Automatic annotation (TrEMBL):
One BP term from GO: nucleosome assembly
Source organism: Plakobranchus ocellatus
Biased segments, Polar residues type: 94-103
InterPro entries in alphabetical order: H1/H5
Name of the protein described by the UniProt record: Uncharacterized protein
Length: 110
């Protein structure tokens, strides 16, 4: 068999890495987990018996008379009149009490 030729090594060019686009992931809806309730074991504490203390008699306090406060009068708020009503009144030209009727003129003895 003949001699094998030596192969020349080629210089490798560095490849630029392409940035991978991140795929948007669909958000999974979280399901609320039900918490398992653990049964707590209650420890019973034994009460130490103590001597009963003697109660002291309380002195009665005299009540002070309260002064009555004067009530402030509330100011009545003026309500805005409806403009349309005013216009109607002018049309009828009747006294204010009977704004919507025309009988008002007769009452005044015109």
């Amino acid at each position: 068999m003949g001699k094998k030729k030596k192969k020349k090594k080629k210089k490798k060019k560095k490849k630029k890495k392409k940035k991978k686009k991140k795929k948007k992931r669909k958000k999974k809806r979280k399901r609320k987990k039900k918490k398992r309730r653990r049964r707590k074991r209650r420890r019973r504490r034994r009460r130490k018996r103590t001597r009963k203390k003697q109660k002291k008699k309380k002195k009665k306090k005299k009540k002070k008379k309260k002064k009555k406060k004067k009530k402030k009068k509330k100011k009545k708020r003026k309500r805005k009149k409806n403009k349309n009503k005013r216009r109607r009144r002018r049309k009828n030209s009747a006294p204010a009490q009977n704004a919507n009727t025309n009988n008002g003129r007769d009452d005044q003895g015109e």
